[in-house]
């Protein structure tokens, strides 16, 4: 089976980004959203992203026009009938995704593959909402989708191996680096990333550092493209809270409970860039946050890094994912300059273990203890 027409349901930042990825790679794309304004927002997201590429000289106006001409938009699921693959990129709410998949199952031709871009929810439960669970798969892109080169392909116990193979082939044709993972909450990258982001807000909530100190620490001392609060704003704080709830329901660890500072921002409607404010206010252009307090930055950097590297060591040691997939995911999915195992190699694993133990002892949080292997 070859893919000629691709559907995307949900045209927020991720959905519109996925539309762009496929249209840029030469596929015909149908973008569907639930309302006229949501369709308009998707069109506008695509237009802005292409205009940015044209203004930077990365695309000619002619190429941009060709990409735009490959995409059609609408509100009706019937528009997706002939799609070989439909990717759902709706908000991270299981009941909503289940409802969408049941509608997709009725609307899309029987040979069509249905994929979810869920960040952490059970692909199996989503597949169960259809009469074709063997053709339902997770295809998890990273924000901004046109920029980040990593995609997680999630299979379930129902998945047809040929379907998985086709999706891997398709992902490669998009120029993405793929990792295959089974259906586990948070998959590879979000399981690590969300705990790190939550840890940062827990430090903030405890008054141990400011958001500027935390963001500057990770940018300046680890060379991350964004600090944790900036990244929460980019992803969407509401989305991050939902992902953490799913991870927490699985691990039951207090460190995975969404931090109060995130929950209260979401309650106030401050969801990050998409709502105009989150940890930061986006009504005007912001400079990268900086802060001269080196002692606090060093402490915060040490704590966030040791906990995160410890999680990576545990993820690999328990057979959840390989070092290569973890390193690729964090570099190509989140734009980090080095993968965690490259960092561990340069620091030395014994120093990381000692750092974890010190963090556990100082905070009294046993979950930071290194695992006994
Ligand atoms: N759409 C398309 N292209 C974009 C873009 C967007 N929204 N934002 C930036 N770009 C492109 C720019 O055009 C530019 O392209 P060129 O290099 O070809 O010129 C490039 O990205 C760099 O952009 P800028 O110079 O404007 O900005 P920057 O250097 O500060 O980079 C960034 C911006 C790419 C967002 C970078 O800060 C970054 O990688 N941040 C980390 C983002 C991250 O971690 N994402 C993963 C989040 S987790 C997730 O998404 C999964 C989930 O389920 C929650």
Task: Note poorly predicted spans.
Answer: none
CATH T-level topology of the largest domain: N-(1-d-carboxylethyl)-l-norvaline Dehydrogenase, domain 2
**Tally of helical runs:** 15
Number of distinct beta strands? 8
| Major beta sheet summary | 8 strands, mixed
How would you name the oligomeric state of the polypeptide chains in this document? single chain
* Count of distinct structural domains: 2
Order of helices and strands: EHEHHEEHEHEEHEHHHHHHHHH
| Proper CATH architecture of the largest domain | Orthogonal Bundle
Which class of the largest domain in CATH terms? Mainly Alpha
Bound molecules: acetoacetyl-coenzyme A
How far apart are the first and last residues' alpha carbons, in Å? 45 Å
* Helix/strand structural class: alpha/beta
In brief:
By secondary structure, the protein is an alpha/beta fold. The chain has helices at residues 13-24, 36-55, 61-69, 94-107, 123-127, 161-173, 189-205, 211-222, 228-235, 237-251, 260-267, 294-317, 323-334, 340-347, 349-363, and strands at 5-9, 28-32, 71-74, 85-88, 113-116, 136-140, 150-155, 177-182. It has two domains: 5-182, NAD(P)-binding Rossmann-like Domain (Rossmann fold); 189-368, N-(1-d-carboxylethyl)-l-norvaline Dehydrogenase, domain 2 (Orthogonal Bundle).
């Amino acid at each position: 089976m070859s893919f000629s027409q691709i559907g995307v349901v949900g045209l927020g930042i991720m959905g519109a980004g996925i539309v762009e990825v496929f249209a840029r790679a030469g596929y015909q794309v149908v973008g569907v959203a639930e309302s006229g304004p949501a369709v308009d927002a998707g069109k506008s997201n695509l237009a802005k992203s292409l205009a940015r590429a044209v203004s930077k000289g990365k695309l000619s106006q002619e190429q941009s026009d060709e990409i735009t001409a490959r995409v059609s938009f609408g509100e009706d699921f019937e528009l997706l009938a002939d799609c070989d693959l439909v990717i759902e990129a709706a908000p991270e709410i299981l009941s909503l995704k289940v409802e969408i998949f049941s509608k997709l199952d009725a609307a899309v031709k029987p040979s069509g593959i249905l994929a979810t871009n869920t960040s952490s929810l059970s692909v199996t439960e989503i597949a169960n909402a259809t009469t074709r669970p063997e053709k339902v798969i997770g295809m998890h892109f990273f924000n901004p989708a046109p920029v980040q080169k990593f995609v997680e392909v999630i299979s379930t116990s129902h998945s047809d191996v040929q379907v998985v193979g086709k999706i891997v082939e398709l992902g490669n044709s998009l120029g993405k680096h793929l990792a295959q993972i089974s259906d586990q909450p948070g998959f590879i990258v979000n399981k690590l990333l969300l705990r790190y982001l939550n840890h940062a807000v827990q430090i903030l909530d405890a008054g141990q550092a400011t958001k500027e100190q935390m963001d500057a620490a990770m940018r300046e001392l680890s060379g991350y493209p964004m600090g944790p609060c900036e990244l929460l704003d980019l992803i969407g704080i509401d989305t991050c809270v939902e992902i953490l709830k799913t991870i927490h329901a699985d691990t039951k660890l207090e460190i995975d409970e969404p931090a109060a500072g995130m929950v209260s921002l979401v309650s106030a409607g401050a969801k990050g860039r998409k709502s105009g404010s989150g940890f930061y206010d986006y009504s005007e252009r912001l400079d990268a946050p900086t802060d001269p307090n080196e002692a606090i930055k060093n402490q915060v950097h040490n704590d966030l890094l040791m906990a995160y590297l410890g999680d990576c060591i545990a993820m690999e040691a328990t057979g959840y994912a390989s070092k290569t997939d973890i390193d690729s995911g964090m570099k190509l999915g989140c734009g980090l300059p080095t993968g965690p195992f490259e960092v561990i190699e340069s620091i030395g694993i014994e120093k990381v273990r000692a750092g974890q133990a010190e963090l556990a002892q100082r905070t009294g949080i046993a979950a930071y203890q290194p695992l006994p292997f």
